[in-house]
Amino acid sequence: MMRKAFTLIELLIVIAIIAVLAALLFPVLARARERAKRTECISNLKQLGVAMGAYVSDWDERYPYAWLGDYVKRYGATPGISEAMAAYVTDSRLWQCPSDRGEVFLHDFSRTLANPTPPFYSVSMYHTSYSYVGMPWGDYYGELTAHTLSYVKRPATAVALVETRPWHGGYDRNDEASESPGRMNILHCDGHVDQRTHGEWRWDAFYGVKP
């Protein structure tokens, strides 16, 4: 007996059901992918925190002598944090955030950068998705370069490494960085990792070294 073919109405109903299911599933899958990326990034930062602890232990309890990430990328200042810690981080993939999309702003930092850029970890001289609170950030703002552990008064607040741009959450290319709601993964000096906006982590860096 010949099987009856689907009618046009039945096919349209099936297509409509598939479209509805896809619309429901795609956001769920996107969130799952973002959670997976954040988990990998947190793992990277925690391992980098362990490596930084080993560096500090070997160098008279002093933080690495290195430049702020943007100075490495824009002006070729050396050493960058990945170069300064090369002996302590043998797997270069730890410096690569899976969410690194390169430059995301049209303003602020990007005045001297093409927009968009490749991922920061792939850029010559930079080789990392993470920026160090190093020179010339300034002691008043929480710069760690060559300071001893005692300089940091609140390790759970002070910032050691931060994603170079806010690749998480809702940001707009036209935002000013200091006002963007986008969030960045942060490694604090006590080794824990959380997320902050650009404005929040700058405040944390400042507050973490104040007596």
Describe this structure in a few short sentences.
Helix content is 35%, strand content 9%. It has 211 residues and is α+β, with helices and mostly antiparallel strands.
Q: Can you put this structure into words, describing what you see?
A:
The longest helix has 51 residues, at 8-58. With 211 residues, the chain is of the alpha+beta class. Strand 3 and strand 4 form a beta hairpin. It contains 4 helices and 4 strands; from the N terminus they run H-H-H-E-E-E-E-H. The protein has helices at 8-58, 69-75, 81-84, 198-208; strands at residues 130-132, 159-163, 183-188, 193-197. The chain starts with 7 loop residues before the first helix and ends with a helix. The mean pLDDT is 84.
SSE blueprint:
Layout: H1 8-58, H2 69-75, H3 81-84, E1 130-132, E2 159-163, E3 183-188, E4 193-197, H4 198-208
Antiparallel strand pairs: 1-2, 2-3, 3-4
User: Kindly state the mean pLDDT as a whole number?
Assistant: 84
Q: How many helical stretches?
A: 4
First and last CA, distance: 88 Å
Strand content: 5-15%
Pattern of helices and strands: HHHEEEEH
Q: What characterizes the major β-sheet?
A: 4 strands, antiparallel
State Rg.
Answer: 22 Å
Provide the spatial order of strands within the biggest beta sheet.
1-2-3-4
Number of strands: 4
Measured as a percent range, the helix fraction is 25-40%
Structural class designation = alpha+beta
Low-confidence stretches: none
The outline comes out as elongated
